Amino acid sequence: MASHSPKDSQRLAARIAGFTLLLLICSGLLSNFIFNPPLLVEGNPAATLQNIVSHERTFRYGIATGIVMFNCDIVLAVALYALLKRVNGPLALLGAIWRSANAIVLGSTVGLSLLILNLPKFPAYLAAFSLPQIQGLIKLLSELRSHGSSIGLIFFCLGAGVHSWLLFKSRYIPRILSGFYLFCCAESSIIGWWFVFPDFFAELFTALWLAFKGANIPQRQVTLSES
Questions:
Q1: How far apart are CA 211 and CA 55, in angstroms?
Q2: pTM for this one?
Q3: 152 closest CA partner among 162, 144, 140, 163
Q4: What is the pLDDT of residues 133-185, one digit of tens each?
Q5: What is the DSSP string of 203-220?
Q6: What whole-number distance in Å separates Cα of residue 214 and Cα of residue 90?
Q7: Is the dihedral of CA 142, 143, 146, 147 positive or negative?
């Protein structure tokens, strides 16, 4: 039975991380931009409920692609830990935990999405509220989803920041690429959601490099204490 060296395992982990990150990016775009129709119509509860009913299939596609995205984040966290643990094990583990926390927090918002989606299917439940109250409930659930996404962004920035720092120090990928990735993670955590767009390109370029070029594992591993 053929044995694999630690470097072979790291190279495999790099490829897995790259392809998983590509899938995560694609599913994230579908979930957040393609399958995310506007549901709330201010001042018109009946139109809001009709929106939910008429866009049910699209909304379900968004939930499904979101679930794919969250699971990709868990796989990516494990793959990056396997790639970077020889650079600095505790930091690589911390980054994986933060990325996993992002997936867990965002995954919890799926329950809120399902609740919004199923709301019009329970007439007896709706009968207990007036239309303005129903509008307020849907708005509250939507805002909870938004706040959950903001909290998830914090964990994402922390995890991605640690991993991009380790990639920068290890030189597994070009430093201009890992440095750009690290810069975008830092700016996203400070400035907020709008800076996610530059981060999109940083993650995309990193994903493409890891998937198709792999990681340049040196003969002698570089650790943070040595660099």
A1: 35
A2: 0.89
A3: 144
A4: 888 888 999 899 988 988 998 899 899 999 999 999 999 999 999 999 998 88
A5: HHHHHHHHHHT-----SS
A6: 23
A7: negative
Q: Return d(Cα 227, Cα 205) in angstroms, integer.
A: 25
Q: Which of 62, 96, 102 is nearest to 80 (CA)?
A: 96
187-205 pLDDT tens trace: 776 655 555 678 889 999 9
Q: Look up residue 167 and give its two tokens.
A: 């990639």
37-57 confidence digits (pLDDT tens): 888 888 888 888 888 889 999
Residues 112-149, buried b or exposed e (16+ Cβ, 10 A)? bbeebbebbeeeeebeeeeeeebbebbeebbebbeebb
Nearest to 79 by CA among 176, 178, 189, 215: 215
Compute the chain's Rg from CA coordinates: 21
Taking the C-alpha atoms of residue 181 and residue 157, their distance in angstroms, rounded to an integer, is 11
Which single residue is written with the structure tokens 């530059």? 198
Q: Give the up-direction half-sphere exposure of residue 95: CA atoms within 13 A in the CB hemisphere.
A: 29
Concatenating the DSSP letter of every residue in 101-113 gives HHHHHHHHHHHHH
Tokens of 75: 């796989």
